Amino acid sequence: MKKVSVINFKGGVGKTTLSLHLAAHLAKDHRVLLIDVDHQSSLSIVVLGATLWEARVKEQKTINRVFESFCNRKIPMPGKEIIVKNPIFERHKRRSYYENRYPKLDFVSAQFELDDTEIDLASTSYGNPLLSEWQKRTLLSEWLDSIDASNTYDYVIFDCPPATKIVSQNTLVASDSFVIPVIPDDLSSRGVTHFRGLVQLKIDEKLAYLKKTANVGTCQSPVDRFPMIRVKG
User: Fold this and answer.
1) Which CATH number covers residue 53?
2) Which of 105, 111, 177, 201 is close enough to 232 for a disulfide, judged by CB 3.0 to 4.6 Å?
3) pTM value?
C-alpha cells in the first residue's frame, strides 16, 4: 500500500483538485481510499454532495473522530464506519448508471469542526508529555492499522489543509511520499524548498526524537507509520 499526501502551506494551488483526480485515476485499476483532512471540507462536498456530507457530519462519521478520540477519551477510535464505500454511487442516490463509475474508490470526509479539534489537540496531553506528543502525531497511522488498510487498499490519498500543524503532520507521518502542487508563479512556488526542508529536518527529526526519548516500543509504533518522509519528484 502506498500513501501520498497532497500538501502545500499556500492555498489556492489545486490541492483538492489534484487529490480527487489522482485518486480517481488510480481507482481505475487499484483500490483507493481518499481522505479529506482539510477542515474547509471542499473535497467532501464535491465528492459526496452537500446532503450526504451534512448527514455524515451529523452522524459524526468523519475523519474528525480519529482526532477527537485523543482529545476526549470518552470518544473511541472509530473503525470502518467513517468510510463511504463507492461515494460517487452514493452521492447520486445509488442510480445504476453510477454504480460502476469508480467502484474501487472509497472516501472519508472532513468537517468544519476539525479546525477546533486541532486546537484541542495542541493543548491536550496525557501522562508522559513526550509520549503524548508522539501519539497525537500518529493517530491517522493508528487508525489505518486498526482498519487493516494495508490489506484493503493499494493507495491512500490525503487531501491536506494549507498548514503544517498536527493534523497535517499526521498525514505526513503516515505517508510514503508527498506531492506539493504549485501554480507556476513566484508567489506559489516561493515556499516549496522551505517546505521540503521543514518536513525532512523538523517534522521527521522531531518524530524520531519523540520515539527515542519517550521509549516507544514496537507495540506502540503503528505499522502504517512511514519512518522518514520521501519526496517524489
Assistant:
1) 3.40.50.300
2) 177
3) 0.90
